[in-house]
Amino acid sequence: MLFRTLILKLAQSEALMNFIAHMGRRSGLAGRFVAGESIEEAMPVVQELNDKGIVTSLNLLGEEVSDKNEAERSTQSYISLLKAIHENRVESNVSIKLTQLGLGIHRQVCEKHLRAILDTARALNNFVRIDMEGSRYTQDILDLFQQTFSLYPNHVGVVIQAYLYRSEEDVRQLSPLGCNIRLCKGAYMEPADIAFPKRQDVDRNFIKLLELLLLSPSYTAIATHNVSMIEHAHRFTAQHDVPLSHYEYQMVYGVGREYQNQIIRRGNKMRVYVPFGTHWAPYLVRRLAERPANLLFLLKSLFRS
Ligand SMILES: Cc1cc2nc3c(=O)[nH]c(=O)nc-3n(C[C@H](O)[C@H](O)[C@H](O)COP(=O)(O)OP(=O)(O)OC[C@H]3O[C@@H](n4cnc5c(N)ncnc54)[C@H](O)[C@@H]3O)c2cc1C
Predict the structure, then answer these.
(1) List 131, 203, 271, 287, catalytic entry
(2) How many CB atoms lie within 10 A of CB 249?
């Protein structure tokens, strides 16, 4: 937890971010977690995963935008991405960050863009997952989700982060609606007055929320690489006869590849979150924060060069 906090703090330095981007490219670590810089580069990666029986969720990498034109550009890119998925006949939906669509500028700007993307998703019979971001946006994201869920019930889903104290209440409110919820631990740096500071408490809450979701009318996307969480879900779904059509497992591209195959062999649905795009350095930093070994790999390549 301390290592993760330290890396996320250091990531606020632009110089360090540029250095990590440089080293990430040089060491090949970026290629392990990011499926190229363009839609054209990402499509064969998705096809290869589909060939193994894995479905995907494509994410166009980017952080918060503060300019309306940039938000408009991100929106058009997501519309193009949905069309490319359709044209290439790959099995993938998309995951988006609302701050990329202008949530930080104005909620109405963001809603307009989200609806444009959802219109395309509905026309192409696809699905849009709204990723969850830092806690200053949690309420806005959940509000926008609920608003759009009533209009596009089969085409939009949201994410709940187990590290937030508020998440149990959010799950109790959302899950009876029969929506599509991804449960993850949470990847941002949050203060102790709103998020569990200890890893064991986050894990305990993850299990609690997982069980609530699996027994609810909602569809659950179990997003974790943690073996004990996954094995718990496996036992719990068997004990409670939760149908296979009611949930799926999710992992990020480049992590737990062997385990993903094992999950498929058990007959479960496995979706891999596949990020791509030119703006990959902050994403790489979050992946480094989750595993010290990745950072060591990066540092070793520095001394080799
Ligand atoms: C599909 C998916 C979608 C997500 N969406 C969101 C979101 O919308 N919002 C949000 O805040 N967070 C999101 N996350 C991130 C999540 O909140 C956690 O930060 C992250 O998944 C680490 O927690 P864990 O439960 O997977 O594993 P941990 O319990 O932290 O780790 C379990 C094991 O997996 C290994 N591991 C974990 N990450 C890596 C890695 N990068 N490289 C190598 N090994 C690794 C660990 O070393 C450990 O051995 C998402 C995660 C996934 C898998």
Answers:
(1) 131
(2) 25
The 10s digit of each residue's pLDDT in 17-41 is: 776 776 666 667 777 889 998 999 9
182 is catalytic: yes
* pLDDT tens track for 101-115: 999 999 999 999 999
CATH class of the region 35-279: alpha beta
Catalytic site residue 166?
no
Alpha-carbon distance of 234 to 244, in angstroms, equals 11
Closest CA to 56 of 4, 9, 93, 85: 93
| Among candidate residues 275, 263, 91, the one with its CA nearest the CA of residue 187 | 275
Domain ranges of the chain: 35-279
CB distance 165 to ligand 1 below 6 Å: no
Q: What is the pTM of this model?
A: 0.91
Asked whether 107 and 141 are in contact (CB, 8 A), the reply is no
